[in-house]
């Protein structure tokens, strides 16, 4: 099986990429994605920013992206960019499946403490290396409009993160290229802006979960009906504490209605502001 995959890897990758891009009816996702893989990664850029040698390719990328003139690697049989695009889309699809699984879970505050297993072919969620009972959502099982809307938002968010990175933006904002980005932002619809905000909040929670995994945090159990009793007098629901495990067995408990904010966790006042209400 492995030998067959190695032999036909390029054909398989090309076929899978074509399936992903079949939903891109206007080509915007492909153009955004090609701009992303052409722009330099932040970790590959010197601390002082772009150099005279690396700036021109960035500017050419912005111009080509504005004109929507990137060539389709599938049409050009560009195996290098086909492989890069497939890796890029595969990782984003993992995040999309993670985003949906957390949003659709009955206990979202608990779900947002978990992280996706990036090494697994089958979508699954982990908390400190252990699989968690969160129902996965397969990207391929969604309708075409849903896949298009989500993939478009995640790709555009990745592009904006690269463009507005301090190492790159401080050079672009001085020239007309800032106007190119601004015009593109103005063309976004209200639904596009809402989708980008959702992606932004997802990644904030994602990085927050990384901090939670590095700390003495605790994953709460799911609430069950057997642990709930209705009080008729005040119409409130109380937990039967005698049936719950002792908190001292778990060390520092992680409340189920808060999440770690990565930015606040790095601040000097993190001991008082590390937790924020969702």
TrEMBL record:
The protein, known as: Uncharacterized protein
Species of provenance: Fusarium torreyae
């Amino acid at each position: 099986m492995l030998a067959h995959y190695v032999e036909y890897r390029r054909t398989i990758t090309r076929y899978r990429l074509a399936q992903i891009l079949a939903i891109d009816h206007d080509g915007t996702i492909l153009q955004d994605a090609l701009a992303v893989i052409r722009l330099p990664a932040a970790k590959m850029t010197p601390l002082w920013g772009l150099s005279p040698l690396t700036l021109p390719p960035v500017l050419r990328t912005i111009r080509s992206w504005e004109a929507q003139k990137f060539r389709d690697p599938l049409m050009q049989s560009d195996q290098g960019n086909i492989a890069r695009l497939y890796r890029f889309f595969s990782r984003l699809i993992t995040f999309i499946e993670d985003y949906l699984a957390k949003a659709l879970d009955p206990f979202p505050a608990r779900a947002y403490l978990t992280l996706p297993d990036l090494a697994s072919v089958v979508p699954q969620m982990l908390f400190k290396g252990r699989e968690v009972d969160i129902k996965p959502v397969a990207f391929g099982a969604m309708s075409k409009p849903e896949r298009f809307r989500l993939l478009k938002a995640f790709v555009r968010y990745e592009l904006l993160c690269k463009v507005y990175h301090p190492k790159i933006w401080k050079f672009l904002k001085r020239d007309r290229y800032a106007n190119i980005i601004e015009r593109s932002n103005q063309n976004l619809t209200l639904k596009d802006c809402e989708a980008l905000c959702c992606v932004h909040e997802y990644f904030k929670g994602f990085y927050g979960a990384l901090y939670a995994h590095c700390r003495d945090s605790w994953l709460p159990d799911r609430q069950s009906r057997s642990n709930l009793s209705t009080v008729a007098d005040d119409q409130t629901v109380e937990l039967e504490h005698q049936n719950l495990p002792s908190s001292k067995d778990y060390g520092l408990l992680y409340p189920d209605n808060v999440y770690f904010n990565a930015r606040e966790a790095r601040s000097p006042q993190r001991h008082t502001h590390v937790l924020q209400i969702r």
